[in-house]
Amino acid sequence: MKRISATEYQAMAELRYRVRVFLREGDAAARSAGLEPQQYLLLLAIRGRPADAAAKIQALADSLLIKHHSAVELVDRLEKRGLVRRTRNRDDRRQVLVSLLPKGQRVLERVVQQRINEVRAGGSQLVRAIDALLQDPHKRRNGSK
Prior knowledge:
Layout: H1 6-32, H2 37-47, H3 57-64, H4 68-80, E1 84-88, E2 96-100, H5 102-134, H6 137-141
Antiparallel strand pairs: 1-2
């Protein structure tokens, strides 16, 4: 087993810090738009699905790493606010599909635009932290890449 270098520990600490900052800023951006962080993530999961992949409740739960019933509760709250619509799949009526309504699209777009601007402004620090971990110090010490 290879020993973990001081550089690797530092890189892991930096990566953890940068990811936490990114997540904290995302939560703040969601709240400033009137959303709870999980609500923002659900809207993003819906909009971020490939065109050929329906936004089924279970798929959304999986993408947020939450239980099915928690996703249902999130959809309930967003539906009451007029941000999403729930429909039944035409081919399989047991499946519930979720789509963004225009109001949900507008709110999501504001938050995502802010997040993209933040990533473009400070993302290089996150990339450097990841890059530091991708560099194998054991191989560098031996003169190979």
